[in-house]
Amino acid sequence: MKKIHSLTGMIDLISNKVSKDDIASKIFYTENVLKNIFESYSISEIRTPGLEDTDLFKRSVGDNSDIVNKELYSFFDKNDKSITLRPEGTASVIRSIIEKKIDSESHKLWYLGPMWRYERPQKGRYRQFNQAGVEILGYPEGLAEIEIVSIICSIMKKLKIDDSVLKINHLGDKKSKQEFCIALENFLKPLATKLDERDLQRLNNNPLRILDSKNPETQKILNDAPKIKDFLSNESLDILDLIKSTFSDECNIEIDHNLVRGLDYYTGFVFEAVSSNLGAQDAYLGGGRYDDLCLELGGKEMPAIGMAIGIERLASLAKTLDKPKTLVSLIIISSNIEPKAYKIAHKLRSISDSINIDVQLSNGSLKSKLRRANKDNAAYALIIGEHELETETVIIKPLLDQNSEQTVMSFLDIESFIKEIG
Ligand code: AMP
């Protein structure tokens, strides 16, 4: 029969205990680290659906973005309604806040989950990938920027990510952004015949996005174009300097006035973290301020800043894994006593959070169960048979040190032993 394969650009993640898949374990670990960091900033979790009304992304991410132009997984449901697998998390978060009528309050939220973009797959670029994101809502420019960068530095520190640069820029307040866009348009309009169709479209709809063009001809033209830096107010420039000076002892921060993000909704401070260890797709997180999005989606005026982290890319850079928990393999050698022996494992688990107890559920011989325990890297095998149950004892066999002898311990002593190794 013809085998069924996973779709192009979509990967399975299986623990390395099962498949020797190291990146999967790093991803699971990274997700836990991120959740703990978000909680330590008192940020609350939000989960939104994977499927949304297509209009949500057209109106938020923007018609000029690559995502909406060519990467959306959109289709009609059985009711002929156009729906889309979310390509990013921010739009859904804001939709949800507006729908729950809590858009006049302030919120700090985090999410984690799969996103879908119909991109050309390559190293570090998938069609289904995972993003963790933080949205700080209801706070004007200032401390919220500092908090976001503080979170990024904490992530880099905990995962020991060096060889990384956090690029930051400011797209200007409303007035300076408008003045810069007019100057850019005036400069580019006489050169319009030299622009490709995409850039021409950007020029007409959102000239700022031209700075993001991948066309080398356009980039050459832009060399002589007006620079955003010359239009920024002192307040905007001060924010960049403040962030750089506050965190430069912790992470490598560079002001890059050419940085514009690929989504239409950004307004002021923007940033992107890149690492030369990632190859061509070198950005592993990015974000910025998007003060107008809530209003544009039909809600109240709500200042906001957020970021999205590509979990697969971040995990591939992560250098530390916490010390794995001590694994104890419980081997029951008589099928008559299984439930009673299982209950002992149940009790032992509650004694220490730093050990994992694997009760081998299959029938095999003691030898095959010991082989399995060794393969799983268990530190100890606890062996229980009818005799042990009668005498309220357990055999303990150390597995990591071949020279250690097995010993017999009473039920009471085994509890202290578990506390000791945990
Ligand atoms: P964006 O939502 O485009 O600002 O992306 C934020 C982060 O998500 C990027 O810095 C990447 O780390 C990650 N990312 C975006 N697209 C993909 C993709 N197709 N595959 C893997 N990671 C991605």
Q: Count the domains.
A: 2
Fraction of helical residues: 25-40%
- Overall, the morphology is elongated
Radius of gyration: 27 Å
Structural class: alpha+beta
The hetero compounds bound to this protein are: adenosine monophosphate
Average per-residue pLDDT, rounded, comes to 92
> Which range does the strand content fall in?
15-25%
Order of strands in the sheet with most strands: 1-5-6-11-10-9-7-8
CATH architecture level-2 label of the largest domain = 2-Layer Sandwich
Q: CATH-wise, what's the superfamily of the largest domain?
A: Bira Bifunctional Protein, Domain 2
Low-confidence stretches: none
Quote the CATH topology of the largest domain: BirA Bifunctional Protein, domain 2
Describe the 3D structure:
An 8-stranded mixed sheet has the order 1-5-6-11-10-9-7-8. Strands 13-12-14-15-16 form a 5-stranded mixed sheet, sandwiched between helices. It has a 3-stranded antiparallel sheet with strand order 2-4-3. The model has no long low-confidence stretch (mean pLDDT 92). Helix content is 37%, strand content 22%. It is of the alpha+beta class and 422 residues long. The chain is elongated, with a radius of gyration of 27 Å. The chain folds into 2 domains: 243 residues, Bira Bifunctional Protein, Domain 2 (BirA Bifunctional Protein, domain 2, 2-Layer Sandwich); 96 residues, Rossmann fold (3-Layer(aba) Sandwich), CATH 3.40.50.800. Helix 2 packs antiparallel against helix 6 and helix 2 packs across helix 12. The protein contains 16 helices and 16 strands. The two termini are 49 Å apart. The structure holds adenosine monophosphate. Adenosine monophosphate (AMP) binds next to strand 6, strand 10, strand 11 and helix 12.
